[in-house]
Amino acid sequence: MSLSFKNRIAFHYMTATALVIALVFATVFCIVYSTVMHNVDGDLSYEANKHITEVRIVNGEIGFEDSEEWEEREHHEIEVNPVFVQLTDEEGKVIDRSPNLKKEQLNFHPEKENDRHFSSHLMGRHVRQLQLPVKDDGQIKGYVIAAMSLEPSLMVIEKLMNVLLISYPIILFGLFFISRYLAGRSIIPVKLMRDTTDRITRHNLNERVLIPANRDELYGLSTSINELLQRIEDAMERERQFTSDASHELRTPLSVLRGTLEVLIRKPRTQQEYEQKVKESLAEIDRLAEIMEQLLVLARVDAGLTISTDQQAPLNSIVEGIVELKTREAKALGVDIILLDRLPKLMLVPKYATELILSNLISNAIKYGAAGKQVIIDLSMVDQRALCSVKDHGVGIKSEDIPLIFNPFFRSDALNHRSIKGIGLGLAIAQKTALSIGAVIEVKSEHNKGSVFTVRF
Ligand code: ADP
Fold first, then answer.
1. Could you identify the atom of ligand 1 that is nearest to the CA of residue 413?
2. N or C: which end of the chain has fewer CB atoms below 10 A?
């Protein structure tokens, strides 16, 4: 059975309250019952003790001092809370009894402890009874038996019992509906939240759920939902920006290619002109292929496909491999690569991811480094973490552009260094890869002085 949230709260509340009320009712009942019985027992003790003083033993014979007067005086009435008194010998044979007993007699219970009250029956009615022994020289000579009707007391107890039993389900029923109503009211903000989130689609992601005035659990939930919506909105915005940038980057070389070919077929050209235009077209095709290649790498890193199959390898040998591959490119630009290996021990890192990060950083340092200057790669260990910093003395980055350089397709000050080729995806790939292996990339750069990119593994 699946209960609604408010019914579930009401049901749990009712179950807990039912147990508490049952406990309270049982306690009230026990207290009333024992008080009533205590009063009856007190009256009974008083009567029995009063009559025992009137008992005399003469020549071993037991009897009331003045039997006739006693009978005259005592206990005629049966209806109004009557007390029945009976005198027996030590074996329980009746010697005398109060007139209200008529022909009946109180049952003697030799097994019952003397001086203890107990419940019994007389003429089909419930009575409370007490047997007091009459002693002579420490020897029991007989008993004064007193009994008192329990009917009025039992009537009170029965009434109380009926009131408790009838009111119990009524109280629980009422409680269920009251707590159901209150639970319904307290989940109104949740319903409002659901209505808002149901309304939100990719077209109105800027809507937010209402924040309750009280700083309670619902306040926390609404804030979390709004933060989640903000993150989704940011991600969608980044995706939209990326798609528009990517299509722009892909369209540019295609437009150049189309323009070049259109100009070429307008009129006959010399062999030299044809060669020149074909070379330009091939360069655009290479650029297109590179963009596609980089986008593919970015998509693979984004999907985490590269990380799961990555092997561990020593950091210094990975860097040595990259330096070897890049040396010719660096030499062509007049840049010297210096590798400082200050690692105290062998540090294992994910091979493919590290290659992806460091080859992008080292390529950039060579591209944006100044000719005739050095690129210094420094491997060290700080706070149990391996560090690889790549330092150049080149164009540097304007301080306002530093937070943007990891965005896909962002190129800082591209117009001022047109000769440096790039598409703006290298750092985005490096950043995403670093995130996926728990590494951090830090940048320090001064415009026209140089940059230091540090990877903390
Ligand atoms: P690109 O293909 O343009 O090099 P990246 O993503 O690798 O793309 O870098 C993004 C931008 O960050 C570059 O266009 C450049 O402006 C800046 N940048 C990156 N590395 C350096 C560096 N070592 N020195 C100066 N600028 C850099």
1. 16
2. N
Separation CA 184–CA 175 (nearest Å): 14
Q: Which atom of ligand 1 is least distant from the CA of 395?
A: 25
pTM score > 0.70 for this model? Answer: no
Check if the beta carbon of residue 414 is closer than 8 Å to that of residue 401.
Answer: no
Rg of the chain, C-alpha, whole Å:
51
> Does the CB atom of residue 350 touch ligand 1 within 6 A?
no
Total residue length of the chain: 457
**Residue 364 CA to ligand 1 centre (angstroms):** 6
Q: Measured from the CB, is residue 362 less than 6 Å from ligand 1?
A: no
Which DSSP category does 311 fall into? Answer: P
Question: How many Cβ atoms sit within 10 Å of the Cβ of residue 162?
Answer: 10
Please answer whether residues 120 and 127 qualify as being in contact, where contact means their C-beta atoms are separated by less than 8 angstroms. yes
Residue 78 has pLDDT above 70, yes or no: no
What pLDDT digit, counting tens, does each position of 372-431 carry? 889 999 999 998 899 999 999 999 999 999 999 999 999 998 888 788 888 999 999 999
Distance 312 CA to ligand 1 centre (A): 28
CB distance 391 to 369 below 8 Å = no
Tokens found for residue 177: 């509906």
- Establish whether residue 407 lines the binding site of ligand 1, counting it when its CB lies within 6 angstroms of any ligand atom: no
Query: Is the Cβ atom of 451 under 6 angstroms away from ligand 1?
Result: yes
Helices (H), 200-304: 217-266, 271-302
Q: Which of 249, 397, 431 to mutate to test the pocket of ligand 1 (most atoms within 8 A of CB)?
A: 397
* DSSP single-letter state for residue 189: H
CA 60, CA 58: separation in Å to the nearest integer?
5
- Contact present, 81 and 147 (Cβ < 8 Å): no
Task: Provide φ and ψ at 190, rounded to 5°.
Answer: -65, -40
What span, in angstroms and rounded, lies between the C-alpha atoms of 193 and 211? 9
Residue 451's closest CA among 408, 401, 379?
Answer: 401
Reported as a single tens digit per residue, the pLDDT across 341-359 is 999 989 999 999 999 999 9
Amino acid type, 199: R
